[in-house]
Structures are given as C-alpha cells and as structure tokens.
Amino acid sequence: MLAGALVKGLVNPNIKPGKTEKPASSEKTSESKEGGEAQSAEGDGGLGDIGDKDEIMTALAALKKTRQFKFKKIVKKGKGGKAEFVSQLLIVDDWKEDEKDHQKGRRYLGDEKEETEFDEAKRAALFLLHLERQGELPTRIARHLNALLAVHEDRDFKHMISDQVRPQMDAMASRIDEIDEGERRMLAALISRAAFQVGVRSSENYGRLLAAAGAAEAARLAQSSDGPVKRAEQLLQALRQAASPTYRTAVIEAGRGGLEWLGSDLVGLSPRELLQAWVSLFRAADCIDILTLPTMAEALVSGAASKGGPTAMVPLAEVLPPALKTAPWGGPLAVQVIVTLAGRGETKAAEQLAGVLCEVIRQARGQCVPALGALRDLRANPAAGGDEQSLLQELERQAPLLAALIPTCSRVLEKGQGIPAEASAVLGESLLCMATLNIVGATSSGQQLLRKTLLAQERNMENFLVTLPRVALTLAQPKLVRPLWDSGLTPAHFQFGGRPFLERVALYTGRSVAGAVLARNQKGDFSAAKVLLRSAIRSNPALFGLTPDGAYLAAEALEALRERPNKVILKGTMIRLAKVRKKYTLGTHPGSIDPFLDLVNALAETRTSTKQRQAVAEIIP
C-alpha cells in the first residue's frame, strides 16, 4: 500500500501524503465465462492513447493488462474417486496484441536485465559461430577465441566460454580433412594455446578437435616418400607444432603404422644416419607424455624386428651414447625400448642396451663426483679452507648432462621389474643419480629440470617428482651409506626415511616455481601464475612433507602473498605456513629446513631473517 501511494504521489504531485486518490471514473469490464475475473478500467487504455493520457500511467496500464493471466477451473478425479479442482491457463485471442502493448510499455519504462558472465560467454560463442557462417578461416576463429581467453583473467569465465564453443569445435573436428595442410597445423597450434589457457578442467572441450588434427598429421606422415632420417625429423616437427598432450598423443597413436614402417627402415642404415634418426626420435619422445612412450617404443621395435629379426635393435647400442649426449631429455624412450625388448623375449639385446645406458649414466654422474665431494667436505669443515665459489662453478659446468638424465633414471626405477636381472646394475646407478638432486637441484641446470617438470605437471603429464618420496625411502637403507659417501654426498641427508633429502629438493622446487610464477606476474598473466603456483604445491604434498589437506592450505597462504606482496601479508603467510606445518606434517620427523623459504622470499620480494622466523615460531601456540 505504501509503495502504491508513493508511486501515485510521484505521478500526480497534487496528491497530499496520507490521502488516497479516488479514481475519476471506473468502468467494469465484462466477466469472462471461463475465468470469472474482472479487469480494472485502468488497464483498458492501450499505448495508442499516450498523447491524451499520462505516459507513465498508460505504460503501467499496458503492463498490468497484458500480465493478468486467465484461468478456468476444471474438475479432475483424483485417487479414490475424489474430485480435485485444477486450473488451466487460457490464452485469449487478443493475447498477442496485448503482448505487443506489453513490450512497448516495457521499452518505455526501461527493462535492463543484469548482464551475467554466462550471457557474455554465450554472446562470445555466438560471435565465433557467426564468423564461421560468414566463411572465415578456422585459424581466424581460433585467433579470436585466444584473444577472448587472454583478455579475461577469471578462470571460471574461460570455462564457460569453452563449454559454449564445444559444439562448434566438435563440428570443426568432423571437417578437419577438408582444411588445408598449413591451415590445419596452425589451427592445431592455436587450439592448443586455447586449451592451455583454460587449464586441465576445460581442455577436454577442445580434445576432439586436437585429436582429429593429430590423426590427420599422422596420416600425412604415413604418406611421406622421404627416407627414414627425414621422416624422423618430420615426426619431431609435427609434435613440436602444437604443445598439447592430446594432439601429440594422437600423432603417436594414430601414426603407429607409420612408426612401424620407420622402425623397419632403420635397419641397415649407416651409423651416421642411424645416429641422426635416433637423435630426432629421442627429441620427439621428449615432447610426448610418458604414458605414450610404450606405444612409440613398441611400434619401432616391432617394425625393426619384422625386417631384421631379434638382433635388429643391436646397432642402437653403438649410437646410444652419442645420441643420449645430444638429446638426453629423450632418454626415457631408450628405457622403454629396453623394457619392450625384454617383454618380447629378446633378452640379449635388452641386456646390451641396458649395459650401455648404465655406462652413460655412470659417466655423467662420475664427472660430477669430484666437485660434489669437495663441496661436501668444505661445508662440513669450513676451517679447512677452500674456494666454494670455484667449486660451484665447476659443478655448474659438469651438471647439465646429469640433470637431464634424471628423468631417465626415474623411468629406470619405475620400470625396474621389466629390466633383465643381468642388467640390474643400471638400477643402482640410477638410484645414485637421483640422490645427486640433493645438490644438483640448486644449479642452473637443476633449476631448468625442475621448472620443465613443473610446467609438464601443470598440463597433467606424468613426471618424476611424484616418485621422489619412494626414492627417498630406498636411499635411506643402511647398505647405501658407503655408495652415497663415495658419490660425494652426505649420508646423513638421507636418514629418517629420506626426509632431509626431500626437504632440500622441495626447497629447490619452490625456488624454481617462484621464478616461473613471477615471470607470469610480470607479463600480467595473473590467472596462469595462480594456476602454476597451486599446481606445484598441491600436486606434490609428500615432497613438501604435508598431507593433501596441508598442501591445499599452504597453496592458499602462498597465493595470498602472491596477490599482495607486502609486509603485513608476509607475516600472516609465515604464521599460516607455520601452523600448517605443525598440524599437517607428514610423518613424525620434525623438519630442519623450511621448504617454502625461498618461495616466500621470492613472492614477497624480500628476504626473511632468522630473527623474523623465530618471532613467528613464538607466536604459534
């Protein structure tokens, strides 16, 4: 009543407060037989009378008239024969005409709807569909999609756009064979970028298109008339064209026949050509997920055996050392070839390759042992004198090959049961190589390894970081104390289930992720920085010595510091992390190193002193 009085008072200024206006005239409308409801005379006038009556009242009358629904009562027998009254909506003949009046009145009065993110995402998807109907090239549509995703930082909005464009992407996938070869490659690269921007959760919306593009690229490679060396290089180029695990997996799986053909053509090549081909294959293996390696290795081995028999892979042993030194990141493919040969019963060939791989790892580790041992002795006894800086520089020069072979060593330990017992020496050598991450992780090559692994983990790809807790438990065995000392390492760092070793690796991992996060912040890609930070912490709870719940809370605390790096947030973050470590610590051994120390310092753009950390420790109850 009060609202009605206020509205009437605004329309007619002559009305005094506290009094109600008596309508000048009223006309009763005829009562419909079905509805039995009367309409007031206020609603009789249409918008055609706007020139004679007050515009606002006329518009309101139109709205009231057209929104008054009519019902009729009908009798319906319910359960037990009981009569029930239900209502049925009646649409009168003049409904459409009244609706026109309603729309006119609404336009006059104003009908602004709240613009939601869903509406914006739907409108963006409709515009992409409009571009396609206008005959625009698929690459132009993909470029516009990437621009839309790059402008909006909200990850949820990107998910909504991806959900809306999925039907268009699926339809484009069904027509992938009609797209020109160069256009298709560029399209795969652009859609891969879009899938990366939205993250793992919505990347499947582009999965069908990327898989179709990968399969089309595999078919093109299978039709190549070039030699095996050239085809191996073409495979590498095709995989590097689009940085999407879905696309790359499709290239390998759909191209299995082409890989078998390539494996058969490798038989009989000269050592120089064989080396060139395997270097390209190792580099190609570095592009794909570890889970796809078995398909690639089985196709190559099967193709070679079909032409050269059980000894077809023996020439690989001659070129394996220089090939791994040239492309060490592809070493997991060599491990998979060994496992595949052993599974096919070609034990001698598997033993020979495993022996060569063991020697390559031993040499890479051996050239770092002098610098590692000297650093260990100097830090244990600083009074003895020595130039630590020169020792670190020496380790920097020797460590790149060792750091690049760590994923290979991790793969050896993962596939240990598939390696012949006579070649078990490669297991021990790989274990000692993994232990050197205790110090090598602090070098520039170690930081490159960790950064590359974290970026792969962000794309939901398998990596060696998740295996480190199991490796640490193995390194804690008493029988490894002497080999660790001979390797230039400190055996005490591997006690208590390898917890001190993991703490140091976690410290280096935090340092590595900090650099990548800050780089994204500087570019203004705050959403991607947030995703990388959370992925690095939450995907490796055991590495940081926390339970999954503790890793979740630690990531939240670090994210607050990343968003606002000031002294107040820094202190709050340190307190929250200390509480998390106290409540959600994994295991009973208290940590001696704060694994988030370097990460906190980097995000806060400062260095926390020992005095500050002690003050924080005193606050914790």
Helix content: 55-70%
Low-confidence stretches: 1-53, 67-72, 85-95, 614-621
**Main beta-sheet strand count, sense and barrel state:** 2 strands, antiparallel
The value of Rg in angstroms is 35 Å
Coarse shape: flat
Based on helices, strands and strand pairing, what is the structural class? mainly alpha
Quantity of strands, as a count: 2
Specify the number of helices. 31
Strand content: under 5%
Mean of pLDDT: 82
Distance between the termini: 59 Å
Biggest sheet, spatial arrangement of strands: 1-2
Describe this entry's structure for a reader.
The structure is a single chain. With 621 residues, the protein is mainly α. The chain has helices at residues 2-11, 55-66, 95-109, 117-133, 138-151, 155-174, 181-198, 200-203, 207-222, 228-241, 245-254, 256-266, 271-285, 293-308, 316-326, 331-343, 347-366, 369-380, 388-404, 406-414, 425-435, 437-440, 444-458, 468-475, 481-486, 499-523, 526-538, 548-563, 567-583, 597-604, 610-619, and strands spanning 70-77, 83-90. A two-stranded antiparallel sheet has the order 1-2. Strand 1 and strand 2 (83-90) form a beta hairpin. Helix 7 (181-198) runs antiparallel to helix 9 (207-222) and helix 9 packs parallel to helix 11 (245-254). The radius of gyration is 35 Å and the shape is flat.
